[in-house]
Design goal:
Jelly Rolls; about 300 residues; 10 strands; ten-stranded mixed β-sheet; 13 helices
Length: about 300
């Protein structure tokens, strides 16, 4: 059975770039500027405070996991008053060794493993736009284990490292996103997959993107009337069914064009268009440029 979430993550091609140990001691506070790439962190021991722009401040404890899908600006600190030290996340990204905030000597009050990854696909907004600014999970043992594995693999740089890291990050993302499926998620794919009836229709779209789907067919898959299906899909997923279908087809097409997977006529057929000209017209309208030009610049 098709798995739309796995389809989407595979299409975005995430890969690990950076993972390191982070600690804090004494009176400390740091303010990171907007970064843009997805960031993650798991707390190994101790506690600290995290205030992410656009989200309520939270207390992080041992066993907690945090995912920032777009890593906006944030402040992290201990529990004693301290003036935040500004850190440019782009400049700090390549720093080697453990990062220590506050008092440099003695035991740390909090120890964490953190890092970030990037999506090779420029369509990261397909996922990021559907997620809250902060995903905070308590007692996330599986995710803590995954972050440890990411750190160990990134440090070792053994043969096959890139492949293993990309798979670990894919698993890490899926594990984290499972926590926001359903009513906790904003309108989008994750929320749609939390609705059993809509999930059936979404899986059909992902499983057979070239099929000439109609509202009536998709409504039948969801065991709903046409009007009930249309309203429920638009409200839950955030766009009407046919717009979602076209968006997914265009995402697939862009991926095929970037990877030079076939001639234009073949790509058109694979994403549900009867001719290269019909596909080119739809692609240009959706993306803003013809497919051949997109392929040359992607």
């Amino acid at each position: 059975m098709p798995d739309p979430l796995s389809d989407l993550i595979a299409l975005l091609r995430p890969r690990t770039v950076f993972a390191k140990a982070i600690s804090g001691a004494g009176n400390w506070a740091v303010r990171y500027g907007d970064f843009g790439h997805p960031g993650f962190c798991t707390v190994i021991e101790g506690r600290c405070r995290l205030a992410v722009d656009g989200a309520e401040a939270v207390t992080l404890e041992a066993g907690d996991f945090v995912l920032l899908p777009a890593t906006p600006g944030f402040t992290m600190s201990g529990f004693e008053p301290a003036e935040p030290v500004f850190i440019d996340p782009h400049a700090a990204a390549g720093a080697a060794g453990e990062v220590r905030h506050g008092r440099q000597e003695g035991d740390a009050d909090v120890r964490m493993l953190g890092g970030y990854f990037v999506f090779d696909s420029p369509d990261a907004g397909l996922l990021v736009s559907q997620l809250p600014a902060l995903i905070h999970l308590r007692g996330a043992e599986r995710l803590t284990t995954l972050v440890r594995l990411v750190r160990e693999e990134a440090d070792a740089e053994r043969p096959g490292c890139d492949l293993i890291l990309s798979r670990l990050v894919e698993v890490l993302i899926v594990e984290a996103l499972r926590s926001v499926e359903g009513d906790d998620a904003p309108p989008g794919l994750l929320r749609g997959l939390g609705d059993p009836r809509l999930a059936t229709a979404i899986r059909q779209i992902h499983g057979q993107p070239a099929h000439p789907w109609t509202i009536a067919e998709l409504a039948n898959e969801a065991a709903l009337s046409r009007s009930a299906f249309f309203d429920r899909f638009a409200r839950t997923v955030g766009v009407p069914p046919m717009e979602y279908l076209q968006g997914w087809r265009m995402s697939l097409a862009k991926d095929l064009l970037r990877r030079r997977e076939g001639k234009l006529e073949e790509i058109a057929t694979r994403v549900g268009y009867g001719s290269a000209s019909a596909f080119s017209t739809a692609f240009a309208r959706h993306v803003g440029q013809p497919p051949k030009r997109y392929a040359m610049t992607a």
